[in-house]
Amino acid sequence: MELFSMLWTSVIYLIGAGVGLLILFSIFLYLTTKPYPIVKRHKEEETFFDPITKTKIKLPNINEASTLNLSVIVPAYNEEERLPPMLDETLEFLENRIKEHSTYKYEIIVVSDGSKDKTVQVAQNYAEKYGSEKLRCLELVENRGKGGAVRLGVQNARGASILFADADGASKFEDLVKLESALKDIIKCDPITEPNLVSAKVGLAIGSRAHLEKESLATRSLFRNILMYGFHFLVWLFTVKGIKDTQCGFKLFTRKAADICFQSLHVNRWAFDVELLYIAQKLNIPIVEIPVRWTEIEGSKVTPIISWIQMGCDLGLIWLKYRIGAWKIKSDKID
């Protein structure tokens, strides 16, 4: 009985100590954290190089009126090998769409996230072939992380709809049709024929690989499956409810929704998708999750253990910082 009493006292002490440390940590975070993100941007990152005119041109701003149907943001860090097949597939699809809809206009913004290889050169070769109205490269001076790269690309987008797509081409680009159809159901206007109306609406259509999970379970190791389920649980516990796959790199925003969500985004690395969806849910922005085709491509920058631990820590910090008011969302809820 005495041993049990000692054990119980120790447990109570440890819980109290843990709560005390959490309170002190929360106070420290609140006092040292900026409520809104401060986006660092170098002077060189305000322009893009036009390989045809051999001049640097000032990038537009998302606060300006849209002039295109679609902007495709492609974050790329050392992607000289995986980027060409992705761009080939994307450009073929979009060029064919122009043949079907003569007024349709698009742009692809490749955001080189401080790449050390020939990623910029690869993108510029495509810009020279298709013209900078259709493809331009935003070269970041230093690595920001995937979320930071996507954010800076979005800030310079001209599209009424804004899609960010991974440079590895793991998602089939033609599945954009599925996302557009789902977005159309939400906002009640057509991204292809009514871009001006789409631009002012708010809505997200996100690709999902959840339907492929059973197949993935059979090919992954037990340890990786445990990590995957642990990450899904933390997402559900701390941040986003009702979405099965937060990490698929194939998400379509209306221009207004992208502006609202990205201006409050704090996380620059792998967990940025989760914070984006968290912000959207907090603001009552409609989100629809659509199954898309997906193929694992070699060369992933995600290190299974290190990246997932980092994402787990980010999830906890997202929850805690918003909970204590250290982080705030700029916009009001959507009625």
Automatic annotation (TrEMBL):
GO CC, any one term: endoplasmic reticulum membrane
GO biological process: protein N-linked glycosylation
One Pfam family hit: Glycos_transf_2
Record GO terms (molecular function): dolichyl-phosphate beta-glucosyltransferase activity
EC identifiers of the protein: 2.4.1.117
Catalyzed chemical reaction(s): a di-trans,poly-cis-dolichyl phosphate + UDP-alpha-D-glucose = a di-trans,poly-cis-dolichyl beta-D-glucosyl phosphate + UDP
Membrane topology, record value: Single-pass membrane protein
Superkingdom of the source species: Eukaryota
Pathway: Protein modification; protein glycosylation
Annotated localization: Endoplasmic reticulum membrane
InterPro entries assigned to the protein according to its UniProt record, in alphabetical order: DPG_synthase (IPR035518), Glyco_trans_2-like (IPR001173), Nucleotide-diphossugar_trans (IPR029044)
Transmembrane segments: 6-31, 222-239
The UniProt record lists the keyword Plastid: no
Every Glycosyltransferase 2-like domain range: 71-185
This protein's UniProt keywords: Endoplasmic reticulum, Glycosyltransferase, Membrane, Signal-anchor, Transferase, Transmembrane, Transmembrane helix
Similarity comment: family membership: Belongs to the glycosyltransferase 2 family.
Entry protein name: Dolichyl-phosphate beta-glucosyltransferase
